[in-house]
Amino acid sequence: MLASVRRSRAFTLVELIVIIVVLAILSGVAIPKYIDYAARAKESAARGTLGAVRSGIANFYANAAVTGTAAFPTLVQMQTLGTVMQEAIPANPYNNGATIAAATWATTPPVSGSAGYNYDDATGRFWLNSTTTGINEHLW
């Protein structure tokens, strides 16, 4: 009788290196895509919030024009639920602040403290308070 040869069922070193190289290539493609998705998600959330609040400001202005003198809401009215917005304004995705700071619109939008948003009640402009450069949120 011939002695049966037993084969081991382990991976060879070459197979392990090939798997590691394939995983490195996949992660090299996936990580930049994930970072891009996270940045686009923040931008989309910010655009949605800005659009809703700016629409509320426009509605307030239109209602004020119909009932008397056209005026933008004051900072206190912006922060009072049910006056301009029916629900609380979500936190700014760039700095996690949900408060609104009084600001004056200028050529370059100002950044004031840790507030989530800036509001100029003289012009009705509402924008993000962000130290993130390059997003140009004041142009949305």
Describe the fold and architecture:
- The chain is mainly alpha-helical and 140 residues long.
- It is 43% helix and 8% strand.
- The protein has helices at residues 13-67, 75-79; strands at 100-102, 117-120, 125-128.
- Strand 2 (117-120) and strand 3 (125-128) form a beta hairpin.
- The relative contact order is 0.12.
- The mean pLDDT is 84.
- Strand order in the largest sheet: 1-2-3
Mean pLDDT metric: 84
Report how far the terminal alpha carbons are from each other: 84 Å
Strand content: 5-15%
The coarse overall form would be rod-shaped
Radius of gyration using CA atoms only:
27 Å
Class by SSE composition: mainly alpha
Order of helices and strands: HHEEE
Summarize the main sheet: 3 strands, mixed
Strand runs, count: 3
Bin the helical content.
Answer: 40-55%
What is the domain tally?
A: 1
Unreliable spans are none
Number of helices: 2
